[in-house]
Amino acid sequence: MSGVLLLQIVAIPLLCFAAARDIATRLIPDGVSIGILVAGIAARAMVGWTEAGISLLVAIAVFAALLPLAMRGLLGGGDVKLMAALAAGLSPFETWSFVVATVFAGGVLGLAYILGRYLVPETRLAPGGPLLRRVLAVEARRVRRRGPLPYAVAIAIGGTLVLLNLPGA
Length: 169
What we know:
It is elongated and about 55 Å long. The chain is built from 7 helices and no strands. By secondary structure, the chain is mainly α. Helix 2 (30-47) runs antiparallel to helix 3 (49-71). The protein has one domain. Residues 10-111 form the Prepilin type IV endopeptidase peptidase domain. This is Prepilin peptidase. The chain crosses the membrane at residues 30-47, 54-75, 95-115, 149-166. Keywords: Membrane, Transmembrane, Transmembrane helix.
């Protein structure tokens, strides 16, 4: 199994899970980031230990660059960990592509939330209803109250786009 395939098999489902959990709870489990980090380091080690070390340094730099945003409340701590974990499995150029794709996906997500304030109707939360309906009702309430964005959705989109376009995929 190639390192790229390993990273795709592990990271894409975990990114989707992180996005779903972020929508539902605004929390990203640490295990998701740890799983992506371990798979990423293993994938880069299959290319070479030097490449794995460089990717790990880039991941630390991503974490250090995003940490002040989390400390100011502009980005969640789970989002910072998730982005750094995925960066550990990518080359520096691929990490840059991931960051750019994530920023663009975040912009679209932000626009959707701005428009959602005006377009999402008031819904009542029915106890015991289907899970998807309850999650949508809670999310509609968050949109109207200008709650925080579930930025793991943007991270999952950016990460998946980059992972599916890796050389050797």
